[in-house]
Amino acid sequence: MLKDSQVDLCGRTDFTRTAPLLARDEAFSFACAGCGGCCRGREDIVLSGFDLWRIAARLRLPPRTVARAFCRGSIGRVSRLPVLRLAPLKEERGNCPFLTGNHCAIHDAEPLVCALYPLAQEITKDGQVSYFLQPTQCGGQVIAARVGDYLARYDVPAREAADVRWAQVCMELEDTVERLDALFEPVFARRMQEKLWQALYYRYDFAKEYRPQLEENLLWLDSELKKLEGMQMRHRTIEKSDR
Description:
Elements: E1 7-8, E2 11-12, E3 21-22, E4 27-32, E5 46-47, H1 49-59, H2 63-70, E6 71-75, E7 82-86, E8 99-100, E9 103-104, H3 112-116, E10 119-123, E11 129-133, E12 141-146, H4 147-153, H5 156-183, H6 186-202, H7 210-242
Antiparallel strand pairs: 1-2, 3-11, 4-12, 5-7, 6-7, 8-9, 10-11
C-alpha cells in the first residue's frame, strides 16, 4: 500500500523517468491484453482539478461529493499542495472505484493518467508538453501507433491547454506555499490549506466551464492568502507588544 507521503501532484515521488521523450510524430508500441489490469491495485492515480471537474460533470455531482465518495486526499510532501487520488476499493481487491467488469464506467471522463496510459506526460514551467512510454507487463496484443494519433484517439489534445494551465498553476503555487509555510503558525497554515483545497478542487460548478472558474478561483485565492498573511503579521505584532 502506498503511503500518502509517496504520492504528490506529479504521481509517485519515487518515480524517475528513464524512458526517452517521444516526439508527436514518433512511433511506439506496447502489449495490451484488454484485461483492465491497469485499473487494479493502483493507488497512484492522481487527479487534477480538471479531472475532478470532468468526473463531477459526468456524474452530475458537486466536486466535493465526488472527492469524498471516490477519492483520498493528502498534502504533497514535496509540493505542500493538496493531492487528490482515486481510492481503490478494498472489498474489490484494490480495483479502481469506477471499474465495472473490465471496463471504465466513466470512460468519457476518465482522468488524464488513464487516458494517456501507457504514455505519460511531462509539462515544463513554460508550458512545453512531452510524452514518454511507461513499462507495461500485461502481454497480449501488440498495439503500435504514432504518439500524436494515440493522443487524438483519446481526445488528449482537446484538453491539453487546461492540463498545461493546471500544471503551471501548481508549479507557481509551490513557491507561494513554501514561503507562507515558513511564515505561518499552524492555525494559519491549516487555513491556507483549506483555501487551497477550495481553489484547486472544490469551488467549482460542474455545469459551468472549467477554465473561467479556475481563473476566478485563483484571484479569490490570492486575495484570501493576502488576508491570512496580514492576519499572521498582525498576530505577531500583538505578541511582540505583549512581551
